[in-house]
Amino acid sequence: MPGGTGFDGTAPGSGGPRGAGRVGGMFGTGTPGPLRLFRQALSGQISWMLPLALLSSIPLLRRFRLRRSLDRRTQAAMFWLAWLLPMVVFFSIAGFFHQYYLVTLAPGIAALVGAGTVRGWKDWQAHRKGWRWFLPAAGVLNLMFELGVVWPYTGLRWSLVVLAVGLTAVGAALVLWAKRAPSRRLGAALSVLALLVAPGYWALTPMLNGVNGQMPSAGPAGGNTFGGGRMAMRAGAYGFPDGGFRGGAVDGAPGPAQVPGYGGASLQARTGPAAASLRGRTVRMLASPRRGRTGRRLSMGSKASREAVACPARS
């Protein structure tokens, strides 16, 4: 469907990564481990600048001494590391969380990247021995990581890769060989912009492709995840107006039986033997999956439950 998503959760024309929909872990968060944030499941959600943020802490803390008072720059770097590192550890080992929780890492990453880039540029201009090439090397490593995230997306790899690499080449040429200071600063800005090409596109995908507002995620495969499998959660998915699955026989009862899930999705309901009496109707959730209008607990097979949740199907 135009504007919809495929059965693997990929947007049309995105050329989603091989194995999309099999990223593993609950809600598509991958397998716990020390490199979890750098693997396919989560790398496109928050980790674009994470390598540069971690590397930037090295020059920012180079004046740290145990028996010496800390200057404000070192204090700020330690503060943001204390913000970032516990969250990195938590999301690397946690068993249950949604992808959008990772936004809590963003302030720490942004602060360390910004401060580290300024510190590295000053080292470059001052020709500081041993530190002048640290920022260029860290930037190249971060760019290589970003290209690794983009590469599995066959429909995007060349446009994003060529743009990012091209900006990097032009920026590096200006920084190395331009004779005027404004031109060198322009080269540095282009080099930074190159690192924002891929994450910038990923940040736009929820608006370009549509996303479940209650459990959002970024990327061309922008569907939400359940049990490691991607499932389209938006209106019009799979060609049905309410985004649901067309029900067949449910426990032996013919006809559709649907329960609108969170974010407007419809999941096929198991209504038990009582489904035979609901032929031609749609089972709808009123207050909660197993509660009626009054909030008292109901059994899906009981008469009270059928009266509370059954309503004629829409044409």
Describe the overall structure.
With 315 residues, the chain is mainly α. 43% of the residues lie in helices and 6% in strands. The strands form 3 sheets. The chain has a two-stranded antiparallel ribbon. Strands 3-4 form a two-stranded antiparallel sheet. The chain has a two-stranded antiparallel sheet with strand order 5-6. Residues 1-13, 222-300 and 308-313 have low confidence and may be disordered.
Keywords, please?
single chain; 315 residues; mainly alpha; 2 domains; two-stranded antiparallel sheet; 8 helices; 43% helix; 6% strand
Low-confidence stretches: 1-13, 222-300, 308-313
Helix content range:
40-55%
- The span between the termini is 20 Å
DSSP summary: helix tally: 8
Question: How much of the sequence is in beta strands?
Answer: 5-15%
How would you state the average pLDDT, rounded?
A: 73
Main beta sheet: strand number and arrangement? Answer: 2 strands, antiparallel
The shape is flat
Gyration radius, rounded: 25 Å
Which structural class is indicated by helix and strand composition?
A: mainly alpha
Order of strands across the widest beta sheet?
1-2
Taken together, the total number of domains comes to 2
Strand element count = 6
Order of helices and strands: HHHHHHHEEEEEHE
A few lines on this structure:
By secondary structure, this protein is mainly α.
